[in-house]
Amino acid sequence: MTIQKQGEKEEHTYEIVGSAEANMQEHKISHRSPLGASLMDKKRGDVFAFETPKGPQKYKIVNVK
Which GO biological process categories is it annotated with (predicted)? Predict the structure, then answer.
């Protein structure tokens, strides 16, 4: 899944996996992590908020594979 923070051009691609397979260096995030849970059941074009250390941030789903 590729996401983009609103107001920025840079995109980030993640694979949602089970907790045992999660590895941020490989861009694999757990479906139980805050970001992974936020991405569940989303489709291309959806906008969602994700809680970060700097407060809630809005992201857009750019692509789903």
Answer: DNA-templated transcription elongation; regulation of DNA-templated transcription elongation
Q: Total structural domains in the chain? A: 1
Residue 45 and residue 11: Cα distance in Å, rounded?
13
% of the chain with per-residue pLDDT over 70: 100
SS3 at position 57: strand
Angstrom CA distances, 32 to 7, 8, 9, 44, stand at 27, 26, 27, 21
Residues of the domain holding 55:
2-63
* CATH of residue 51: 3.10.50.30
Torsion, CA 17, CA 21, CA 25, CA 27, rounded to 10: -10
Contact, 27 vs 6, CB < 8 A? no
